[in-house]
Amino acid sequence: MVKHQPLQVYERQLCLSCITGIYGCRWKRYQRSHDDTTKWELLWSFVLLFTFGLLLLWSYFWWEAHNDYSEYNWFLYNRSGEWSDGTAPIVASTAAGFTYITFLMVLALCHVAVGQQLNLHWLHKIGVTAALLTTVVGLISVTQTWGYEWDVVPISLQATGPFLHIGAVAAVTALSWIAAGQVARAEKTIFQVVVVLLYFSVLLALYMVPLYITSPCIMDPSNLKSRPEVIGHQGASMLAPENTMWSFQRALQMNVTGLETDVTISLDGVPFLMHDATLRRTTDVQKVFPERQWEDASSFNWTDLRLLNTGHWFLKDDPFGTVQTLSPHEKQLIGNQTVCSLEQLLKLASFNNCTVVFKLGRPPPEHPSHYSWINDTLQAVLKSGIQQSLVFWTPEEERAEVRKMAPGLVQTSLVKPETPETLQREGISAMLLRYNQATTQEIGALSQNNINLTLYTVNEPWLYSVLWCSGVSSVSSEAPHILKKVPYPIWLMKPDEYCVLWVSMDLVSFAVVIAIFIFQKYRSSGIHSYNPEQIMLSAAVRRASRDVNVMKEKLIFSGIPRVHISTDPQPLE
C-alpha cells in the first residue's frame, strides 16, 4: 500500500509570480529567493534609478519645451534644408522610454517591499542601457545645439513647482511603507539606523523645499497688474502662413493689439516680410525659380517676389497640426497668399489702429541697399501714412538720424541693458526680448522705469500666466487664439494660503509616515519567529477549502513484504 504524505502546502501567489517573472523571468517558486541582493544586482538597481532620474528630467524638459517646438523645427530646417516635425519622434521615444523605465522601477520597489531578491533579467539590462545611452546622447545634443532652451526648466518651475512639491511629498510618504518594512525585517541594527536616517533626511529636506520655491503667482491678487497685451508673432502663424496678409488679419480677429514681423529689402529697394534668409521654406520658389532657390531672399526684385505663392507650403507641411481645423474657405484663402510688403502691413495696422514691431535684416554687401537699408525702410514707414507712435523701431544703426526724421517712432531695443537707466539715457522706451532673457526682478525694474517690455514667443497658457504675474507689459505669440482663452492667470495664491497649505501637507505627511512605521513594527513582531513556509502552511490549513498545490511529496511504503531478488541465473526446468 502506498501512502502520500504532503510535506509542504503553498498558496497560489500569482501577484508575486508576475512581479518576479516580469522583472527577472523567475516565474517558479524555487527560482525566487529571500537572500540579500548581490552587489552586481545592486549596481544594476542604481543604474536603473539613475536612468529613471535622467529620463524624468528629459521628459519634463520636452513637456515644457512644447512652447518652442516650432523654433526647434526651424532650427532643424536650417541644418537639413528640409522641413519636418523633428519633435514628434523625440517626444514619442521619450514617452515610451520613460514608461518602460518607470514600470521597471515599480517592479523593483515591489521586490523590495515583499523582501524578494533583486535580479534584473538580461533583456531588461539591455533595455535600461539603451535608454540610458539614448538619454545621455539627447541631453548632450540639446545642450550643444539648443542650450538656451534649458532656461525653460527654471521658468516652468515657477508655475509647476508648488504642485510638483506636493506630488513629491506624496510619493516619498508612500515610500515610507517600503522603508518601514525594511527596518522592521532587518536583523542588523546598523542597517536599521542607516535606512531610518537616510529616509528621514530626504523627507525633512523635501519638507523644506518651499523655502526655496519662488513663483510670481504666489502673491496678493490685489497686486496683480492688468492683462498683458498680445501681439501677433508673424500674425496668427498657427492658423495661417506666417507673414501673410491673411495671417495678420486672423491675428486681428483674435483681438491682438499689435503685430510683429521680420523685414528684408528686395533688390529694387522694397521692404518686404520674410523671416528666413532664403525663400525655400515659405514660398514655391523651387517651382517658379528652381535655379535660384538657394539665393538670398534679398536678391529677388519685387516683381519676381509677387509671383511666388506663400500659402501652399502651409497646407502641405502643416507645421502646427492645425490645417485639419480650417474650413474650405480658409484653405482657399491660404492657397492664394503672396509675399507681403512692409507698406501693406503698415496700412493694415493703421486701419485697425494697432502697433507694429519689426526686426530689420541688413542686405549683404553686394546688395544695392546695403548702405541705404535704414533710409529705405524709414521711407516705407513714412509713406504708409501710419501714425508714428504705432511703430516700434528696433534697428540700432543710425538711431539718432531716425529720431530726427521721425521723432514719433517708439525707439525699441533688442539688446538687454545693464540697467533700465541706460535705456532712458539713450531715449529708448521699449524692449523686445525672448521670454528667457528677463527675470521677474528685471521685469519689475523695467516696469518701474516705464519701459514697455514685450517678450516672445509665448504660446502656452502657463507661460503667459507666469509672465502676467511677473508684470510684463505685452507678449508676442504665434497662438493668439489660445491666449485669448486665458482671462486670468491659471493659478494665483496668497502667500499666507500657500504657507498654510505647505505646513498642513507636511504635518499630515509626517503623521502618516510615523503611523506606517509603527504599524510595520507591530505587524512584523507577530511573524518574526516564523519562516515563510510556516506562515503559508498555516494559512492553507486555516482555509482548507482553498485550492492549494502540493509542491513536494514523500512516498511512504508500508505493509509490503520484503522480497529478495537474486541476481544468480536459475536453471530452466
**Could you tell me the mean pLDDT?**
88
CATH architecture of the largest domain: Alpha-Beta Barrel
Distance between the termini: 34 Å
Total domains? 2
Superfamily (CATH H level) name of the largest domain: Phosphatidylinositol (PI) phosphodiesterase
Radius of gyration: 35 Å
CATH secondary-structure class of the largest domain? Alpha Beta
Largest sheet, strands/sense/barrel: 8 strands, parallel, barrel
Q: Helix share of residues? A: 40-55%
Q: Tell me the number of helical segments per DSSP (H or I, 4 or more residues long).
A: 21
Query: What structural category characterises the helix and strand content?
Result: alpha/beta
CATH topology of the largest domain: TIM Barrel
Count the beta strands: 11
Strand order of the largest sheet: 2-3-5-6-7-8-9-10
**Share of residues in strands:** 5-15%
- General shape: elongated
Q: What are the segments in which pLDDT stays under 50 over at least 5 consecutive residues?
A: 528-573
How are the SSEs ordered, and which strands pair?
Blueprint: E1 2-10, H1 14-24, H2 39-64, H3 69-80, H4 87-114, H5 122-145, H6 152-185, H7 189-207, E2 229-233, H8 245-253, E3 258-265, E4 271-273, H9 285-288, H10 302-305, H11 312-317, H12 328-335, H13 342-352, E5 355-360, H14 373-384, E6 391-393, H15 399-405, E7 410-413, H16 420-425, E8 430-434, H17 440-448, E9 452-456, H18 461-470, E10 474-477, H19 480-483, H20 495-525, H21 532-542, E11 549-557
Parallel strand pairs: 2-3, 2-10, 3-5, 5-6, 6-7, 7-8, 8-9, 9-10
Antiparallel strand pairs: 1-11, 3-4
Helix pairs in contact: 1-4, 2-4, 2-5, 4-5, 6-7, 6-18, 6-20, 8-13, 13-14
